[in-house]
Amino acid sequence: MPSKIIDVKEYVVRAHQRTIHTRIFNFVCQQCQQPTQRETFGPRPLYCEQCRHPQAPKKSAVPLKKRKPRAMTYRSDEGRVG
Ligand SMILES: [Zn+2]
Asked: Cα(80) to centroid of ligand 1, in Å?
């Protein structure tokens, strides 16, 4: 397949509405390895409907609030003159 490099100019897309359509994907689920079919708006899905909705939602091992803050180095007085 021939190819070449072209220059694409920068441009801004204004906010707008657009109609998008679903696509039906036939694929093999990454979880249960079963051939399945799903209709999605987005890209090709990885999991079938069953694996996509886990029966028992797992709780995160470390709650967000209990995470330690990142150690950060503040250098406010270095390199100043006067
Ligand atoms: Zn599955």
From this structure: 60
- Cα distances from 3 to residues 6, 8, 9, 10, in angstroms, run 10, 15, 19, 21
Q: Model pTM?
A: 0.46
Ligand 1 center from residue 22 Cα (angstroms): 20
Mean pLDDT by 10 residues, the chain (82 residues): 93 92 95 94 91 68 68 68 63
**Distance, CA 34 to ligand 1 centroid (Å)?**
6
Secondary structure letter of residue 49 according to DSSP: H
